Amino acid sequence: MFRSRANAEKAKDAAQSPVSQAKQPRDPQAPKGRPTPKRSAAQSQRRSVANTPTNRKEAAKRQREERRSAMERQRQALASGDERYLPVRDKGPVRRFARDYIDSRWCVAEFFLPMAVIILVLTIIRNQQVQYIGMLLWLAVIVMIVLDSLVTGLRLRKRLAEKFPDQNRRGAVAYALMRSLQMRRLRLPKPQVKRGERP
């Protein structure tokens, strides 16, 4: 109502110009301005457009399925030792060597749980001599585990320095010692070497 006539005409021209441009046919000889995509690229692009989720619910469902399949791959890798799908803490040649080093030898620490159960039973018995024996056994087990872990850690550190001088070895010894505390059949990734076999 209070606009000038010149502004109203400009607005009309602006509204009509895209329609008129869109209706004009393109000259078949004129270049498109981009190269024609290869068939494989066009098909993959079409598939990606078709596979994109349309709403949040579908996106969440797809994300759950992807997470579930990734966890399944990781579980199978932990059982088989497949490096591609292992968790980050278990990946790499240094960690693999540390695992194989521990799995190839007998460790006192792996018998900690069975011995702890036996000692616990001994301390529950209401006989002072048996309880005293249980306490001595507890002390002996702890001392043996500490000594065995120290010797294993020093030897492993030396072997890692010889075998992987240029790679990052940080945390590998602690990783191996934590593995030695687990019983052999409960270890993940599963042991890939037999006892007595050199890694």
Largest sheet: none
What is the average per-residue confidence, as pLDDT, rounded to a whole number?
84
Intertermini distance: 90 Å
Rg over CA atoms, rounded to whole Å, is: 34 Å
Structural class: mainly alpha
**What proportion strand?**
under 5%
Shape: elongated
Order of helices and strands: HHHHHHH
The amount of helix comes to 55-70%
Describe the structure.
The protein is an all-alpha fold. It has a domain at 92-186. It has helices at residues 5-23, 39-51, 56-80, 93-103, 112-124, 128-163, 172-180. α4 runs parallel beside α7 (172-180) and α5 (112-124) runs antiparallel to α6. The protein is elongated and about 105 Å long. It starts with a helix and ends in a 19-residue tail after the last helix. The model has no long low-confidence stretch (mean pLDDT 84).
In short:
The chain has 199 residues and is mainly α. The chain has helices spanning 5-23, 39-51, 56-80, 93-103, 112-124, 128-163, 172-180.
What key phrases describe this protein's structure?
199 residues, mainly alpha, 7 helices, 63% helix, elongated
List the helices and strands and how they pair.
Elements: H1 5-23, H2 39-51, H3 56-80, H4 93-103, H5 112-124, H6 128-163, H7 172-180
